Known about the structure:
By secondary structure, the protein is of the alpha/beta class. The chain folds into four domains: 2-136, no CATH class; 145-260, Rossmann fold (3-Layer(aba) Sandwich), CATH 3.40.50.720; 275-451 and 482-508 and 550-570, NAD(P)-binding Rossmann-like Domain (Rossmann fold, 3-Layer(aba) Sandwich), CATH 3.40.50; 576-627, no CATH class. It is built from 21 helices and 22 strands. The strands form five sheets. It has a nine-stranded mixed sheet with strand order 10-9-8-11-12-13-18-22-21, with helices on both faces. α11 (319-332) links the parallel β9 and β10 (338-342). α14 (379-399) packs parallel to α15 (419-437) and α19 runs antiparallel to α20. It is flat and about 95 Å long.
Amino acid sequence: MFRQLxxxxxxxxFAGAFAMAYLLRFDFALPPQEIPHLLIQLPYVVLIQFAMxxxxxxxxxxxxxxxxxxxxxxxxxxxxxxxxxxxxxxxLPAEFQQxxxxxxxxxxxxxxxxxxxxxxxxxxxxxYERKEKRKKARPSNNxxxxxxxxxxxxxxxxxxxxxxxxxxxxxxxKGFVDDDxxxxxxxxxxxxxxxxxxxxxxxxxxxxxxxVVISVAQASRRDFRRIxxxxxxxxxKVRVIPSMYEILQGQVNVxxxxxxxxxxxxxxxxxxxxxxxxxxxxxxxxVMVTGAGGSIGSELARxxxxxxxxxxxxxxxxxxxxxNTDRELREAxxxxxxxxxxxxxxxxxxxxxxxxxHRPEVVLHAAAHKHVPLMESNPGEAVRNNVLATHLLGxxxxxYRVEVFVLISTDKAVRPTSVxxxxxxxxxxxxxxxxxxxxxxxxxVRFGNVIGSAGSVIPIFRExxxxxxxxxxxxxxxxxxxxxxxxxxxxxxxxxxxxxGGEIFILDMGEPVRILDLAKDTIAxxxxxxxxxxxxxxxGLRPGExxxxxxxxxxxxxxxxxxxxxxxxxxxxYPEERVRYALERLRTLGEDGPERELRKFFNxxxxxxxxxxxxxxxxxxxxxxxxxxxx
Length: 631
């Protein structure tokens, strides 16, 4: 509704600006003979300006977060709208004099029209901020706490601004601490830089500081550890500002300043997106997210919402998880059209009805079973949900001419030792096969573990600590790749925008981390000493687990893309006949086949697979491929 009102307001501003330009041209003494010219010229000038505004994508901008990118778009629209009007004036013959807009009017009108629409949006933003500030200004009974901010950069400046705007925050800034000696004793946003991190013990003692807030947008793991080590020696609580993504977007909310978490110690650099490419990929389109109630699916929905699609379709079979995602998105983006769809992606009739009714243009397929030990004991369900449902959804995407289909895959698909990993590898093969059959661009994106996702190791550690321990680790040498949920979702979307069809993208996961080190850090951040206050017990590898994960095999070469954190795996697609035979055989084995036969089939289909098979060999499966002519 707000967007429609804004469009009407833009038309009114353009019309008023053109009339005012004529009045200014004639010093508010408009000759009667010029009035017909004004009335003839006004409709087509306004139409051109409105069209250029629309083509620049201005209607998709969220004006709470206006920046230089949005201003650049307005400037481009203004210049491009003036060119056709000038061209008409220069090109039309004399008998069409009434259609020729005076050059002075063009210049004045361009300034007034686009200045007017910018001012209208800034006014709306100002009114919104005043309303929010009044909400935040409600009296608080919290005791005032003295804080030192570590980091006098952009993030620190945003933190100061937000804290000063929040009269109820209960925070009093004593000063900055920054290791850049050039900033020493300088004043930033009215706050002085008092020293370096080495001065923290003295400053905390002399200024009676209660909290130290780390306000560094790109603090490395080493920086975090060094600051924490210093602060362990002094009686002060260490906290951090919100996520790096929020900092880069110019958003810092004092109510979300939080304790240091294990995610901070991973030292992941913030993702820098191709905003223009992402807007072209998502803005104004109908985007479907499957598994929208899960950790990755819900974050994909948040990131998509940021780019203002015309419709956001949330598909999820767990109704309460879907309800939570829907409620959060509607609160954050009240103007966005959101459709919640309780559905199982493996239900062909239900999914076909959804595609028929909503016609998605982009499909982000995050729905999957990902728990390795559970899928070891339920292999048929892994096949049904991870393989067959993916193939069904991909076929529907092709039939309904979806532009892009993105499969969320996993590093466990590389040399799989588990049913879950093997099922995701076959899903990749199915997607590559579909890319040959349809005009839709199909891509898959592989990445490792996501910190904080449902069922991942960190929430389990925290729950074990809450219950008093012990913390369980499968093996002292187990290592995994980790990234944060927002980072994973952003890179998935970026890969989708880059994809031309048929690629398997591999995300840069950084350095692997020992699970034992994560356990120790989680215990320490909870206020305990590992092996002293809280024991760690080694339980042994579970079925299907590896000591370490890989993102590609030695046979799979990777190539760079134009994004530094996204690579393309040079992974050959299987022949069409082999993929289709495999899908049919898996359908049979998944429904009523013996578990042993299913594992054997995975090992034969995927030469790199290493699934454990009890009481049998792959002889029967080899015969099947020979009969099908694919051995």
